[in-house]
Amino acid sequence: MSKFKFGFGALALFALMALGAFGMSANDASANIIDVEVAPFELSSGGFAGSESWTDGGDCDDMPGRGTVPVSPVGAFIVPLGGQIAICVQLDGEQGNDGTDSADVTFDANEVGRFREAICANNDGDGDWFEFDDDDCLSTEGIGTDQLTVDCAEQPGTPPCSDDSPDQGGIVVIYQCPSTLDAPQTSLLLSTGITTTIHITASDADGGLPDSEVDVLVSCRPTAGGATLTASPTTVEIVPAPSNTAHSLIQLTVTDAAGNPILIAPSTDVDFSTDRCAIEETNVDTASELGSARTLIAALTTSNPASYVAWDTFANSVAPDSSPLADNSSVFDFDISGINVSWRSMAAAILHCDPHAGITTATPGVATVTACLEVPDAADICRTVTVTVIGPPASITVAASPTSLRCGEKSTITVTVKDAIGQNVSDHTLVEMVTNLGGTIGGTGGVLSFVGPVVPVSSNGAGTFGGVATAFLLTSESHSGPYEVVATTGGTLPGGGAIGIFSTPPISAQVTVTCTIPAPTAAPAPTVTAPRTGTGITPPSTGDAGLSSSSSSWTLFAIGGLAAFALAGLATLRFARR
């Protein structure tokens, strides 16, 4: 766990550089500020880091707890709202510099907070330095306000404000950040805190020496009232298929009781734990690292499998340690907007669900990740988030509809793939299909690159969506009978792999589709019908000498014939008489 704890050395160095810029040195006759230190202070728990005074020496370098006040990215010392810090200021009194003995030291907090106490070295002369109450500075102005002045000339202790004696002397003031009850700060947005500059000035009361000035930046921040915990993405895969990942970014955001993001002390502890997979915070425990991780997460898109590979590569830049189910971190200031306007306290970790050496906790199921935020003098704030962990393919079933059809028609092939606990595998899990006759078409680019035909049979590949891959079996009128369709799948190689090359043992299933070609049917013989030509030839009736007919033409013919015979017989008779 990293801690953002810094001393005041950089600020003191800056102060000395500034003094040098004015042509002054530690030996010049002036009220030089030569050291400034900051430490936490809480009288109810013992004052200076558990001690009401310090007896081993008497200058600011010996102040208990100095340098342990957390510092924000902009260099501000972080103090809880209503909390207190001790600011120790030491002047240069060596080599007869009488300017410090008559100096006035002024502290101005710019109308934010108040100065509760001023302690001057060993004012009571008992040899115990900077005792609260006993060594209080005399002749002060402004105790209980945001402006405080200490008159070094009025202090009975030796030395009162400077280090006339080696490694002894100085002034300690107790500064308290405003609370929600303070005026005029009641109108402040205390959920986001307030930052102020405490301007420290040491000046010669006689007016004959130049002033010495140092600024201390203090950020008064609220105490956590809540927190939110998120996971991105919420589904991971132990052996990722293309456009899937084995890692989830876990982010804790500190809030007030109403759920608004706030800034708290950046050293506040956060404990991460998980009941499955592994948790690691090392490569996302700073604002810049979290920013990089969030950028990679935002870029994840299924149309670009390389975006998932980039995220997994970043996540695996630091492997989980030997205690994979728990890790410790601390919050840090993070600007979620990226433009320095939306600051909040955050902590982050990465859930690792891919296999790592010596780690056996990556199993299918639901991972419950817990983050607990430490709250001073109160119960920790704990939040949980769940991540679904998908295992590699463990079972496969194949179905066809219909299973019997006419050759030349198609059948729909449905392949269902699940992990060891019955969860659908991730989308884009690759499935290889092969048949002994005809061909299969998966519709996912199999004919383009990642799989080729298997002669004399035909093969292709498909990807799962919702655990199901679909293809069509195209039967041929040239081949009747059973078509065997075999489907195979397995874990994908890192980076996507290729169909037919699996990182886990392949599993297969098959289904049979039968097509038939109906036998030809003989056509019936045609029926011949004679043409109609009237009644045809009718022989004469033997009963009426052929004279009876229903036809009027035959009647007339018969009458005409009888008349002719009669006339012929009459003519013959007349000739005989002659």
Structure, described:
The strands form six sheets. The chain has a six-stranded mixed sheet with strand order 3-11-10-5-8-7. Strands 2-1-4-9-6 form a five-stranded antiparallel sheet, with helices on one face. Strands 12, 14, 16, 18 and 19 form a five-stranded antiparallel sheet that branches. The relative contact order is 0.09. β18 and β19 (343-352) form a beta hairpin. The chain has four helices and 30 strands. The protein starts with 8 loop residues before the first helix and ends with a helix. 11% of the residues lie in helices and 34% in strands.
Give a brief description.
Helices cover 11% and strands 34% of the residues. The longest helix is centred in the C-terminal third of the chain and has 26 residues.
Topology readout:
Layout (H helix, E strand, L loop, with lengths): L8 H13 L11 E10 L4 E2 L28 E4 L3 E8 L11 E6 L5 E7 L19 E2 L5 E5 L19 E6 L17 E11 L7 E10 L4 E7 L2 E3 L9 E9 L13 E6 L3 E3 L6 H12 L6 H11 L10 E5 L1 E4 L7 E10 L12 E9 L7 E10 L4 E7 L2 E3 L3 E9 L11 E6 L3 E3 L16 E6 L4 E7 L6 E9 L17 E10 L35 H26 L1
Parallel strand pairs: 3-11, 13-21, 23-30
Antiparallel strand pairs: 1-2, 1-4, 4-9, 5-8, 5-10, 6-9, 7-8, 10-11, 12-14, 14-19, 15-17, 15-20, 16-19, 18-19, 20-21, 22-24, 24-28, 25-27, 25-29, 26-28, 29-30
